[in-house]
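Tutorial sheet, problem 5. The two components below are modelled jointly, 356 residues in total.
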Amino acid sequence: MLDTYGLSQLPHKVKDLPVLPQAVLEVLQVLRNDNLSAEHCIQLIEKDPALAARTLRLANSAFYGAPGRVARIADAVSMLGLRTVSGVLAAAALTQAFPASACAGFDFAAYWRHGLAVAMSARSLASHCGLDPEQAFLAGLMHDIGQLVLAAHFPAAGNAVQALMTSTDVPRVRAEQTLLGQDHCQVGALLAVHWRFPAPIVEAIAQHHAPPPAAASAPAALDLTGLVHACDAVAHALDLAGLAEEAVPEIDLSVWTRLRLDEARAMRLFASVEGGVRDMCAALSL
Amino acid sequence: MTDPTLPRPASPPPASEPQAAVAPADARQQQLFRHTLRESRIHPLAPLLRRYRSLRTLAAPNSDEETRHA
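Model answer (structure tokens):
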């Protein structure tokens, strides 16, 4: 395939991307089960006024049930939990790494609304699947990060993909594979490795549109990749991104069976994700 | 001005408010699931979403009422 859009430069571009701020890297260690105390986490957040403001705004959002009552970072961390705070910090850092101005022609707010919907949906279902809720949150939040890399650093490629999607109504991943020979899943995985994310999150980003079959050793178990795949479909179906051309992607039948989403659980999930996304978008000014 | 020679409707057109309230939601749902519908298949999430939207629609008037009384 001809390198019409300069994607051969992709590995170099990704390596040139800034690493995550040190504060966020340190807080993300929580997700790798390293030893990071709440006190250390609080100190890291307090050092960065923007992160501190976002953390307080989230703790005070209606979603967490204490509007206007949380004034100290320590109280916010205690209320939200260390791992939720780390997810918020990751979201904050990512919005800084890819500012809207760098993504011309890309609906930045819609992207984040969808990411938050997948993150909340994954966190909500993780325990039911025997998975870690906060790792699921981060994987959901990051799953489409390759789209941001393409939009910010290969705008011609991003625009061509968008044009093909509009003219032929094919899913984004198929338009990317047709035009670019690779897709946002592969691109996102490159960045996730560069940012030293845990291996299960890298795998979820890389394979969320084509989850691997169930492991022979645990045929009924759903792994993080399968969970993100299912929650991606849930988030599109809830129509929270605000895109006219929204379409719900296919869901792998093996994943769907292993998810065991009965009607009562689905109704609770949909309601909590709709409310949660609204409040978190307000807290993060999205 | 209305032409007096034109036949006047004997009665108002059939009440269309409830249909008008539901139809756009159905149309949007079909739009969202169009890729699977195009292949004459039903997406596993489609019935659950339809149920959720109908429950929300039923609950909405009560919520408005509660808000007004609050």
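Marking note: Residues 99-286 of chain A form a domain with the Hypothetical protein af1432 fold (CATH 1.10.3210.10). Full credit if you identified this.
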